[in-house]
Amino acid sequence: MQNLQLNDFINSRLHVTIDKDRHIVGTLVALDSQVNLLLNDVVEFSVIRPSTESDSDKHEAQQYTRKLGLVSIPRSSINVLRIVDEDLEALIKRRTYLMQSAV
Amino acid sequence: MNHKNHNLENTNDAICRDNKQNDTAGKKPLLSFNDRPTSFAQINNMNLIDVTAVFDNLCKDLPARAIIKSSEFDLFEGTHSLEVHNEKLDSSMINLTDKEVLFDCNIPYGESDEDKLKIVSGICDRLVRSIISWLSDYQILPSTVLSCRYIEHILVESESHDKIRKLESGHFLYDEVLSSCVISVAYFAKFVLELLKSGVIYEEEDLNFHTMGLNFFSYINNSNEIQESLNKSITLLRESSLAADFLIDLLNLLNNLVQIKTHITEYSTSTDHLESLKEIALTLSKKQPLNFPEIEGAFTMGIQKRMDNPFPPRDLVVPPSNNYINFVTLADDIGLILKVAQSESTIEIYQFSKFFNKLTQRHVLARAIFPLFLIRNDQTILGTMRIDEFVRSHIEEFSLFATNKEEDYVQYDSGIKIEEALQEGINVIFEMYQNFSQNTCRYAQGFNRQVKLWDSLQAHFEEAEYAITAEGLSDKIEETNNEFYPYAVWAYCMKLKIMCDLLLKGFDLELYKPNEICFLFWYIYYLQFHLQACLKDIDKFISAKIAHINNMPKRIKKVKAGPKKEKLKTEYQIIKETKLPQLKSNLAYVKYLLKETIIMQSLANIEIFQFILFKERKLVDMEYKLSDTMRFTNQQLMHNLRFKPFSSIAAPELFNYEGFLSNLTWIDEYQSLGGDQGIMNRINLELGTINVEVQNILDEISNCAESVDNEIYTGTRLVQEEAMEYYKGIQLAAKAIKISMSVSLAKMNKEKDPSELKNLYRLQLTHAETGSTYFPLMTLSPKTHWTKQDIQTSV
């Protein structure tokens, strides 16, 4: 993984956990030096629950999956940034292949 | 270089092979290897590798202002992105109350039946008012109709079962009545979505339809089920002991609303449901405001947080209590456009289309239905005429009828060229009729496009007619012995009219500044001059044809009695019956157009005269400028930009900037024009001409003359009111200019130092109330704020 550059991650699907109730998956189209991300084709997974605990106990939290389009995520909102292992392997493989070809 | 490219291709191939996925089509990412998760559970089951630290470390090494981006991505698009944790942009941050979150659509809210009735009536009332608020007030769906939790619930439930699912609360007021109301509203929305998809009206400009990822009954093909459901609810309410008149009215209104679709599916011309819709809407508007109890969560911003939403959060719209009245406008406007089916000639269709949306922008649904109702799926006009016949008919009812080129062209080699040009005419006519129902700004854009289309069509007709004339098929204007080209003159006249319409629409849209008046109206005068000359030729040609027919009896009289005479008599009778009425109608229509050119020229003159009076006092000049102090350095470039739509037009020739100036030197001859009094006299003269000609047209419109012997024919029988309003507006605008000019002159002449006028007043383009917005008044308004120059002077 150490050989990977930021450019390699462009166009890959990233999983961004915002908090325990909100998870965003999108295609990385741009980022800056502060790790503010711009994701396209975003799908959001969220849990909407009542605010009071008594209600939370009585009712099941409702899960929603929805499309949001183009979303910018400031670094301060990113809890964890992840990528599917197979995608990462493919990125590493591609990077290795390119480096070998260049040599 | 080649070697590297080769390797790169291999790399991609290898990746694709390895992953057995190669979805590079469209904007999908190159490395989208895994099926996308659809739930939290699936995400939890995926093998995800934490790369947070990798990103943090790599970004540390980047220069502060560096941006890494996909080559296919334009950063400008990034300005439209939704920012996480930004309250104004992040719909996930919408705060919902617990009642909104836990709202259950399958609970029959209300203690007693009466309570339930009030609650259901309140929900239906707001939902129905939300529809018209969405359609008439340019609101968006999620903050109006889709804010109703029941709509979301029923659409989601129905989609998962591929059939309509009603509420399941156990009470008929919810399960039948509220369900049928919600279902019919969603079905009506589906119809609006279909109109939007037909491409006649535009998303955002005319209407917003954010579906939020909901499926609007794509699996329902007709309204039978919807209407049955509504009727069942009405019956249940009537059979119950509840006082449900209000709710029954609402359901009946919806029943009428869903029937609007029949105008484009069955091309129904019946207006019964529209009349009923109006009647109910009026009754309901009189009953407002009604204070029904509200159930928290029934209308909520929740859908913006739960469903697909590429837009920032929008506050809920509480539709005004009196907006039932907007259903009347909707029904009236749809009723109006259906009248086009009563047209008896192509001229009537054309005039109808020209006037129905000209002064008042009609309701968006009426504008969307009109072209679909007129030009049908089977490529016919109103189901009676093929579109190629429609094009021919336009020309026949103008200049082509009874010419040698009307039918005989098919026998000549060059006839094919006429056929080709007629085919091109189909596209031009189609474009023109599509444009008639556009919103006011698109209308102007459409004119812009059409100028070029008509110019090209004219050129092709000319080429074809020159060729066929050379082959020996000729039509002569008797008086001048000049060749008459019936196809080309039609395209030419249409082009000139559209060029003027485009210029005048700019005044309606308030695009011009006072300084431009002179150039623009002089050019309009110039175009009208050419149009007039062309119309006079057509007038001569048709008049000669009519005279020829009328003289036939005299000629027959001279022939000796016998079979030849009888044959001539029979021939005359046939011509008299088949040709004469259409020729007279064409002539009367051309004479009406001639009157229009006279009116337009007089109006253009009046506009220029008022300009001269202000120019003499240095309150206006002919420079293109942004403001009094900000002028453009290159006048010619600005001028070329303003007249760019006409730059490629071959005829009539467009003068360059110097050409315009040299044609307008006379406007500086204030004294030789007679000074204030002389110019006002000229304005009066022009006004007299306008009054006479407009009155003539108004008389014909109000009489709806059917007799072919009338002097003029406007073809406005079906848009009588709209056409009269247009011409009265013109008359009023001309009078207003005269009055306004007298007032301005008195004001200006009071000033002892005329050089001070420009410091005291600025010129504005305004319109008289109810006067035509196509012909502005130049009015003086006191300078109320400090200009840069004023400040410098005072300092």
UniProtKB/TrEMBL annotation, chain A:
Biological process annotations from GO: mRNA splicing, via spliceosome
Transmembrane segments: none
Keyword Transcription regulation appears in the UniProt entry: no
Keyword Cytoplasm included in the entry's annotation: yes
Localisation: Cytoplasm; Nucleus
Gene Ontology CC: catalytic step 2 spliceosome; NatC complex; U1 snRNP; U2 snRNP; U2-type prespliceosome; U4 snRNP; U4/U6 x U5 tri-snRNP complex; U5 snRNP
Limits of the Sm domain: 1-87
Tree of life domain: Eukaryota
Primary subcellular site in the record, as a coarse category: cytoplasm
GO molecular function: protein-N-terminal amino-acid acetyltransferase activity; RNA binding; snRNP binding
Keyword terms: Cytoplasm, mRNA processing, mRNA splicing, Nucleus, Ribonucleoprotein, RNA-binding
InterPro entries reported in the protein's UniProt record: LSM_dom_sf, Sm, Sm_dom_euk/arc, snRNP_SmB/NAA38-like
Family (UniProt): Belongs to the snRNP SmB/SmN family.
Protein name: Sm protein B
Species per Swiss-Prot/TrEMBL record: Henningerozyma blattae (strain ATCC 34711 / CBS 6284 / DSM 70876 / NBRC 10599 / NRRL Y-10934 / UCD 77-7) (Yeast)
TrEMBL record, chain B:
Residue ranges constituting the NAA35-like TPR repeats domain according to the UniProt record: 337-663
Keyword Acetylation found: no
GO cellular component: NatC complex
Record-annotated NAA35-like N-terminal domain positions: 66-224
Major place of residence: cytoplasm
Transmembrane segments: none
Region Disordered, annotated ranges: 1-21
Biological processes annotated in GO: macroautophagy
Subcellular location: Cytoplasm
Single GO MF descriptor: protein-N-terminal amino-acid acetyltransferase activity
Keywords in alphabetical order: Cytoplasm
Superkingdom as given in the UniProt entry: Eukaryota
Key word Cytoplasm present: yes
Protein family according to the UniProt entry: Belongs to the MAK10 family.
Protein name from the UniProt record: N-alpha-acetyltransferase, 35 NatC auxiliary subunit
